[in-house]
Amino acid sequence: MADPEIGGNPYQQLLKRFAITLLLGVVVYRLGAWVPVPGINVDVLRDRISGDGSGEGAVDAVLRWANMFNGGTIANGSVFGLGIMPYISASIIIQLMAFSFPALKALQKEGEVGKRKLNQYTRYVTVGICSVQSLLAGLALAKLDSGVFLQAGVNQAQFIAQTVLVVTCGSMVLLWLAEQITKHGVGNGVSVIIMIGILAGFPPAIGAMFDDPNTDLSKFLLLAGVFILIVAGMVVVTQARRFLNMEQQRRVKGNQVYGGANTKLPLMLNQAGVIPVIFSSPVMVVLVMAFSGIGLAGLLDHGGPGYRYLFAAMIVFFTYFYISITVDLNDWANNFKQSGFFVRGIKPGRNTVDYIHRILMRITFIGAISLAVITIMPSALGTALGLSGPVAQMILGGVGLLIVVGVSLDVIQKVSAFLLAHQYQGMMAGGGPGGKPGGAPASSRYGKKAASKRF
């Protein structure tokens, strides 16, 4: 569907977009999160995954971590149990393959046509990932603990086949909901779905904190203060940029001077986002299993110092790894050269590549350390404050809270850009959204494309 034309009351359009986001992202998604796959013993599954985290193994920890991202759908045995994560994994795979296969890299440079083709490939990979993950989930539920996760009398083979079909279809329906939010709602639909799933865990976490008899007013105020400081720090890390001064070469043709513009190249503190955590989590599961196999399981107890330090080191490693294969500085330098831009005080070409690489590696180190600290913060602070389980995961930081902060900032920026576009439209049309008498609306004077703004 085409972008809505900017005109009329912008606040009514924002209200409509928020209503669509609320309907699809909260009502439909959260209702689906409570619809279980037929044949699952939900009570047993919920007790296994939604425990307090004491004595958990690596697999249980990963399941609890994924359950937090999916808003409790795994613990509920929901048809949305896989959530939107298979699509994110598929997007990462396609993105990494694009830097290894010239054909995919060429599609990235073909504009909207290439983007649609890559999106199509991403959906195909998503279906494959959903099928494999749902098959593994069905086998695990049917075979673990002699089938205690299944209701009595359920045929295991039939349950596995039905789980693959139902859960795969559920994930694709959830992807469709995310696309509708992107088109007609507020913000990126995939990010909004993840944020809603994470926020769904906050009320139970706060309720568990108040149910704890050891939580008094002083402890509550301490947690509130720590929470505010953590959110403020996350905002700083998310918004941090390192700007490089760029200049454009001047060209003289006759009596006219072309170029000479000045701009800034923003480099994010953390270019990789939360992808290093996604990479590190399964690696940690494999390492824990390997250490258990050789009788050294105590060195990597989940939540222990050894586990936390190794997890942090893996996050730093994968941050550099991801940036090294996704950021093509030579391509950046070529684009600068073609457009006539250069870094102020640095010669174009190889010198520019080396200079940006130096800057990028320095700020990436800070970003990687920040991401590692944010990830292990719930476990460390929870131990210090005597908290565990969902309270520590939700209140004391972690990747989930970092995603909520990042998506919230993105939504705020897009709402501000939407209102700013209306303001400019009103000035171009002679004032007001519809223009003054004698002044045509911006949509008729300047064309619908110029007056359109997508979230």
Can you describe this structure in just a few lines?
The protein has helices at 10-32, 42-49, 58-69, 85-98, 102-108, 111-143, 156-184, 189-199, 202-211, 217-239, 275-293, 305-326, 329-339, 350-385, 389-395, 399-428, 442-445, and strands at 241-248, 250-253, 256-259, 262-268, 341-343. With 455 residues, it is mainly α.
List the helices and strands and how they pair.
Blueprint lengths: L9 H23 L9 H8 L8 H12 L15 H14 L3 H7 L2 H33 L12 H29 L4 H11 L2 H10 L5 H23 L1 E8 L1 E4 L2 E4 L2 E7 L6 H19 L11 H22 L2 H11 L1 E3 L6 H36 L3 H7 L3 H30 L13 H4 L10
Antiparallel strand pairs: 1-4, 1-5, 2-3
Helix pairs in contact: 1-7, 1-8, 4-6, 5-6, 6-7, 7-8, 8-16, 9-15, 10-16, 11-12, 12-14, 13-14, 14-15
Main beta sheet: strand number and arrangement?
3 strands, antiparallel
| Order of H and E elements | HHHHHHHHHHEEEEHHHEHHHH
State Rg: 25 Å
Q: How many beta-strand runs?
A: 5
Low-confidence stretches: 1-6, 431-455
CATH superfamily of the largest domain: SecY subunit domain
Give a verbal description of the structure.
- With 455 residues, the chain is mainly α.
- It folds into two domains: 1-200, SecY subunit domain (Preprotein translocase SecY subunit); 227-397, SecY subunit domain (Preprotein translocase SecY subunit, Orthogonal Bundle).
- It is built from 17 helices and five strands.
- It has helices at residues 10-32, 42-49, 58-69, 85-98, 102-108, 111-143, 156-184, 189-199, 202-211, 217-239, 275-293, 305-326, 329-339, 350-385, 389-395, 399-428, 442-445; strands at 241-248, 250-253, 256-259, 262-268, 341-343.
- Helix 5 (102-108) crosses helix 6, helix 7 (156-184) crosses helix 8 (189-199) and helix 11 (275-293) packs across helix 12 (305-326).
- The longest helix has 36 residues, at 350-385.
- It starts with 9 loop residues before the first helix and ends in a 10-residue tail after the last helix.
